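Retro notes
What went well: the complex prediction finally ran end to end.
Inputs used:
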Amino acid sequence: MRKKPFDPKVSRRDLLKFGSLGVAGLAMATMPKWVWASSTLLKDSPKILIVLFQRGAADGLNMVSPFNDKYYHKARPTIALNAPGQDKGALDLDGQFGLHPALSSLMPMWKNGSFAIVHAVGSPDGSRSHFEAQDNMETGTPGIKITTDGWLNRTLSDSYSKGQSPLTAVAISPRLPRILRGDYPVTSFPNLNAYKFSGGDMQASSFDQLYEGSIDTLLSGVGKETKDSVTTLQKIIGNGPKNPEDAGFPKSGAGRSFFELSRVIKANVGLRIGFLDIGGWDHHANEGSTDGQLNSHLKDLGDAIAAFYQSMGDQAGNILLATMTEFGRTMQENGDRGTDHGHASVMMLFGGNVKGKKVYGQWPGLAPEQLFEGRDLQVTTDFRQIHSEILAQHLGVTVQNNVFPGFTAGVPLGFLA
Amino acid sequence: MKKALVLSLLLWIPCSLWALPRPTAPKLPPLSKQQQMIQILNRLTFGPRLQDFVYIQKIGIKPFIEEQLYPEKIDDSQCDQMLTQYPDLLESSWDLYQKYPPANVLIVNGIPQKNDKVNEEQKKEANQRVRTILKQMDAAKLTRVLYSKRQLQEVMTDFWFNHFNVTFEKNRIKWLLPGYERDVIRVNALGNFRDLLGAVAHSPAMLDYLDNVVSTVDPRYVSSADMGEYPMMAAMAKTQPNGKPRKNVGLNENYARELMELHTLGVDSGYTQQDVIEVARTLTGWSFDGPNILEKYPYNANPDDVFRFKFRAKMHDRGTKTILGQTFGPDQGELEGEAVLDMLCKQPATAHFIAFKLCRRFISDNPPETLVKNVAATFLKTNGDIRSCLRTIFYSKEFMGPHNYRAKIKTPLEFVASALRVTNAQLTQPEKAAQALNLMGENLYLCEPPTGYPDTAAAWVYSSALLDRLNFGLQLLSNRPNSSASVDLLKLDSDLKSGNDGRKILNRFFKVFLKDQVSDNTQKVLTKKLSDPEVSHTLLDDKKKSFEAAQLGALVLGSPDFQRR
């Protein structure tokens, strides 16, 4: 059951409080210039990209199940989803695929066309190692290990000027994810309530000077405008809700992450790229169908996404959310109502100008001869293809060769209007 | 000396963004005696305390290393005395289970019985109760890194726990965790790698964490005729009228894969998906009994068998397996798994992978390949003697090489521990330090993926993480009520007195916290702060300035210079 739905009145009030008017209302002298820069940008409704990583390899075949497929049911005698209409059946999407019922709170978005799916997505590299496959997807150079920066950071370096805002890119994560590492200054925090200086102004300004001016190659630059970004954010969020539940988000890890992200967006401090880390998808045992670990994880995720878009209100059309995971799982269930490491999985796309209500991508089939290495769902869409389309069409940036070096985008899947 | 540091920092561009070729390192002067001691204390301990310098000066560098390599010979009774506050750590897993049973279990006369009439409130309470174990684990770990004289043993316990990571949250590990760290990791931390690997492979914690406990012979990999040899499995797999099997049987690849990828050979070392399956087949039946055996077999089951390794022959795949070209089985039972562990330990890839990780911990994020090879050679020659590998590292020229001096960025745990140690703090609220570590991204005993926490700078260096560190230092030195520890600055150094001359205080902090290894920028920035009214209080009557020592000290702990070890 969902927590109380988001109150649109709160949303409007918050917008006033957090939005451009709120910023303008604050004493001008205390505002760093990038806040002004970003608040004026609001007029042209900036596009925001949110990438969500389901760490641990989420089971695409049960998130979006080919419920008619006889091979699917044969390979998963105890964990296959029932067909739509049956007891705890999948939610029919297009007669071929069904959404896991734990994601039911996303169905309104499916029906109104702001939720699309791409199936059989993955990396051309066949690694079944979690960290290696995550690295492949975050560096954007599958199979090449010497890349140390992430493709989101390279996108930022190419297309966003550094002075604009220290919060142009933010990860809601306790560590700095590889996808955002690189030359472009980014930051990461699990909880905005703790993103502040506990000492006085002196402590804050020292921090910037100590780190900005450091010649230590690893540490220099991290303090750039941190003081300003911290004080501005704290001022703006100061009066808003402090906990996910108070803002209509579910009480879960995913709920907390989306809540923190919503606060940064509403503070209107120039966020363009957000990244969310949602772990716990490695279900070797007790994955289950609608009764196991996958069910409860998906429930938390779906409810959080729905609450997020509800809280974004009118801005939802400017915010595109794309999920990804390092690989899918074996088609065959193992002995423990779980699945082992596989190959292709599924991507979900929300908001922005997504042409929803459609499952994109070429379905490779599940007959024995159609499987990757005789056991897993084939990859028919390279994850870089999808992101290339998003970067170009949603963010409107020119995708240069160094974002995905060595990759040439193919015919667009056309999931964006 | 300062110049040398600045140079070494400048030139230390390890895995700098984009794969720039490493510039040929110009010659730096060799480390001074003082720097050598700093290097030793930074790497073999969780950070130098003042008294450690006095000690290492007295006995010398080599005797210090040798002493740390034999922790059992070091009297650690003071720390042991402190650890008596955490009695759960000495208990068996079964005793802990009885003490903190799950909500739906009642222990009646030592026999667990299902109790399905529980409400949400009771479930929550039970969950809270069992977290006592975690709190004690956290507190004990912090106590050890702060006070134990067996510092290298704790460094290595932390290293191997992270290498063979398990998490408190999964399945039954909450009750297994103290035993895992105590009887599997710590006792083998400086011993033999094969012993350590074997102890891990037999530990209920790892068997549960990577699901081997439920992995059985799999009809997919056994011909249907042979399946008749497994009557129990066949009965379990039998399809019921509803089309579903009575009970699932089959292989679980989780442990087999991580055994090769994370614990021994390393990723991309040549094993295939088929090798993963074959290793999993040899390890079928490696399992353990849970508390339910006492209820199920009241006459035969012994409480000592609860949470103990058990080889289940009936679940074991008896066929022939081929792994990395070598044959195992058929019909060798538990010995097959042992043979696989033996084989894995002898692989050059394993030697190299372990050597690399050790060098990354003790030398730099990108350790020199020549040293890694030397350590790998020691590993193979000594059949995995960890102490010998460490000796190869500690006595190498690379270890004292000027380019590797303070080349590592501290992880959150290393930062918190070194701050507590350098201030001679008294740990009063360890749970606050654990919370701070959670915020910084290193939640103790709660790392979910099997990779463990990263040991390289890139994951830990960004503004909010460093801001957390600055805040931690301020909280610590100003003795706020929510601080994890209390610090007596005056006892540390009588010149660290608020109200003293600012420049003098700052210089003492540089001396005490950084052994005067201060970069020009930090020196410049903090000297300028001496005229900041928040640090200096101008007294109207005598126009003399009084200084806030805690504020200044916190900035030193939060400076880039203190983030290196």
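What we learned: The beta strands of chain B are 105-108, 111-114, 286-288, 309-311, 321-323, 326-328, 426-427, 485-486, 536-538, 545-547.
What to try next: split runs per interface for comparison.
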